[in-house]
């Protein structure tokens, strides 16, 4: 009798498990073979789930680019010496798959140099690019080409940028390349001797559809949207970079890797400026949409959207018992003017988007991407 009861119990448990699995729906399916030709790596600096939620709320919950994601994950952001990371350490983790101390770029606390996945891709014949709204020597973009003990070593970072071989770079930082010297000449001149087209306005890129290009659109930071930057800048710059990189890679078995940063979500977060956070997140979201559109028409393209950390401890609260989308119905509260240690999202779209899943460390994300690109 005991054996019969036990057998019935096992059958009942198996049926219950199957029923629950059916109700929860199937998880992401992993294909046996999967490879990526192009990677569009997008980082919303300071963008946590609250910033994305704010944008969705203020959009009236109409569909956004984030809603198009084919798969979603979460990443931990702590650095080697602090449970709350800065952008340099987080950028290094996202670029190279290695932890480092806050303030360090592309190298470990012991001085070990970490090669980024962008540098590895460049060595293997991929086109590479950077698009930002800060200066190109800033922490997040710098993590993809620089190796310095301090993110403040802007002269060295500028020299390393010139030597990096990045094919397309759009952002600020003209001042550092004008003042930095190589062989007694401004670093901008060094770029030109390497056959880069150097432009100072997006309009100068009209008609440019291939080649090596550096766009320097501000001395240091580009203005925020609230202070006059075109609210479609990042979207338009993303489209232009993708056009140039894809044309450069045409006919090659190798594609491209580009890092696109919504840089000043972070700046407005530090300022506890809800309106500014919303404006910067919307600009980033439009760029994400452009990247996803590109993936739709270019097979083998993977779009990875994430953040280096959350900034400001943003929370969204109800100002009334009846929660509405009206201006008086919700409030935006801030816990800090600094960074926080919360998990941040990863949104995936396009080729092999089902291959990156779950809760992972920020160092795992570039390792997964490198594997899909089959980097050595």
Automatic annotation (TrEMBL):
Please report which protein family the annotation says this sequence is part of. Answer: Belongs to the alkaline phosphatase family.
Q: State the organism of origin.
A: Alistipes hominis
Offer one Pfam family short name for this entry: Alk_phosphatase
* SUPFAM superfamilies given in the database record: Alkaline phosphatase-like
PROSITE patterns reported for this sequence:
ALKALINE_PHOSPHATASE
- Which coenzyme or cofactor does it need? Mg(2+); Zn(2+)
Q: Which domain of life is it from?
A: Bacteria
The name of this protein is Alkaline phosphatase
> What broad taxonomic lineage does this protein's source fall under?
Bacteria, Pseudomonadati, Bacteroidota, Bacteroidia, Bacteroidales
Keyword field: Hydrolase, Magnesium, Metal-binding, Phosphoprotein, Signal, Zinc
Signal peptide as annotated in the record: 1-17
**PANTHER family from the UniProt entry:** ALKALINE PHOSPHATASE
């Amino acid at each position: 009798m005991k054996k019969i009861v036990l057998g019935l119990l096992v059958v009942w448990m198996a049926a219950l498990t199957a029923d629950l699995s059916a109700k929860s729906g199937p998880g992401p399916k992993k294909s046996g073979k999967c490879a990526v030709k192009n990677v569009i790596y997008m980082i919303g600096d300071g963008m946590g789930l609250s910033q994305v939620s704010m944008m969705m709320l203020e959009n009236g919950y109409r569909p956004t680019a984030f809603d198009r994601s084919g798969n979603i994950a979460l990443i931990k952001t702590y650095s080697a010496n602090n449970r709350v990371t800065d952008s340099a350490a987080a950028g290094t983790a996202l670029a190279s798959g290695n932890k480092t101390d806050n303030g360090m770029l592309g190298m470990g606390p012991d001085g070990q140099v970490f090669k980024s996945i962008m540098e590895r891709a460049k060595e293997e014949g991929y086109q590479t690019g950077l698009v930002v709204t800060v200066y190109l020597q800033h922490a997040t973009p710098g993590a993809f080409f620089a190796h310095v003990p301090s993110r403040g070593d802007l002269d060295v970072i500028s020299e390393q940028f010139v030597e990096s071989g990045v094919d397309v770079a759009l952002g600020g930082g003209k001042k550092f390349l004008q003042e930095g010297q190589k062989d007694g000449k401004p670093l901008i001149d060094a770029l030109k001797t390497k056959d880069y087209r150097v432009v100072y306005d997006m309009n100068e890129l009209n008609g440019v559809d291939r080649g090596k290009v550096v766009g320097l659109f501000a001395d240091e930071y580009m203005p925020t949207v609230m202070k006059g930057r075109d609210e479609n800048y990042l979207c338009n710059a993303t489209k232009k970079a993708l056009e140039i990189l894809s044309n450069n890679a045409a006919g090659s078995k190798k594609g491209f890797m580009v890092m696109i940063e919504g840089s000043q979500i972070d700046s407005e977060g530090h300022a506890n400026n809800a309106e500014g956070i919303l404006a910067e997140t919307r600009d980033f979201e439009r760029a994400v949409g452009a990247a996803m559109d590109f993936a739709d028409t270019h097979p083998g393209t993977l779009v990875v959207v994430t953040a280096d950390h959350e900034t400001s401890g943003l929370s969204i609260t109800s100002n009334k018992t009846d929660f509405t989308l009206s201006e008086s119905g919700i409030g935006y509260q801030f816990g800090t003017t600094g960074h926080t240690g919360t998990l941040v999202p990863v949104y995936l779209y396009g080729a092999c988007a089902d291959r990156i899943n779950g809760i992972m460390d920020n160092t795992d994300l570039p390792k997964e991407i490198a594997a899909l690109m089959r980097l050595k």
